[in-house]
């Protein structure tokens, strides 16, 4: 199963970086260029283990994922439960660690497998190239969000009402 990862260092503490990563609605769209729309399902109002999320990619594909780990402010993980026909499996995880010299080292990882099995060797090579570009762009966009003063003020005010 191919695994792709990207990392960066952002100028905020891990709890703030984690909170930015968990924004929804307009706040999420402010930094996450990967998606066009996203919403929590089943009446959930905040992310947590077991919460399902519907996401529409900026190119139109949709996916339902389930949060399988949620450990603020250090990591979170998801797995696809419904999605594009060509993914047999898709999962992702985000980690947040104190960086030497200050800030947070952020690492995002995706793993996936494709179907049908006879096409998987070629599809997974292509998927690796596409997802490597996507994850790097997403991490870069996340870093910009962690430098967005208005977004940071909103995240921090939500954390300390």
Describe this structure in words.
The protein is of the alpha+beta class. It has a single domain (3-159), classed as START domain (Alpha-D-Glucose-1,6-Bisphosphate, Chain A, domain 4, 2-Layer Sandwich), CATH 3.30.530.20. 32% of the residues lie in helices and 38% in strands. A hairpin with a 4-residue loop joins strand 5 (75-82) and strand 6.
Subunit arrangement of the protein: single chain
Helical run tally: 4
- The first-level CATH class is given as Alpha Beta
> Ranges with pLDDT <50 over ≥5 residues?
none
Helix content: 25-40%
Q: What structural category characterises the helix and strand content?
A: alpha+beta
Largest sheet: 7 strands, antiparallel
What average pLDDT do the residues reach? 94
CATH topology description = Alpha-D-Glucose-1,6-Bisphosphate, Chain A, domain 4
Q: How far from one another are the termini? A: 43 Å
Which key features would you list for this structure?
4 helices, Polyketide_cyclase/dehydratase, START-like_dom_sf, seven-stranded antiparallel sheet, alpha+beta, Alpha-D-Glucose-1,6-Bisphosphate, Chain A, domain 4, SRPBCC family protein, 161 residues
Give a quick rundown of the structure.
This protein is of the alpha+beta class and 161 residues long. It has helices at residues 14-21, 25-31, 120-145, 149-159, and strands spanning 3-10, 35-40, 52-57, 62-71, 75-82, 87-98, 104-114. The mean pLDDT is 94.
Q: What order do the helices and strands come in, and which of them pair?
A:
Blueprint: E1 3-10, H1 14-21, H2 25-31, E2 35-40, E3 52-57, E4 62-71, E5 75-82, E6 87-98, E7 104-114, H3 120-145, H4 149-159
Antiparallel strand pairs: 1-7, 2-3, 3-4, 4-5, 5-6, 6-7
């Amino acid at each position: 199963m191919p695994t792709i990862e990207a990392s960066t260092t952002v100028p905020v503490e891990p709890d703030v970086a984690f909170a930015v990563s968990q924004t929804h609605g307009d706040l999420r769209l402010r930094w996450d260029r990967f998606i066009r729309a996203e919403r929590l399902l089943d009446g959930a109002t905040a992310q947590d283990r077991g919460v399902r999320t519907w996401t529409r990619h900026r190119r139109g594909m949709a996916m339902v994922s389930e949060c399988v780990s949620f450990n603020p402010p250090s990591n979170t993980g998801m797995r696809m439960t419904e999605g594009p026909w060509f993914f047999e499996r898709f999962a992702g995880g985000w980690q947040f660690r104190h960086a030497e010299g200050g800030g947070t080292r952020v690492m995002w990882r995706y793993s996936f497998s494709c179907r049908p099995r006879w096409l998987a060797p070629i599809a997974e090579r292509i998927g690796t190239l596409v997802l490597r570009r996507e994850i790097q762009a997403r991490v870069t966009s996340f870093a910009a969000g962690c430098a967005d003063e208005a977004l940071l003020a909103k995240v921090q005010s939500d954390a300390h009402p």
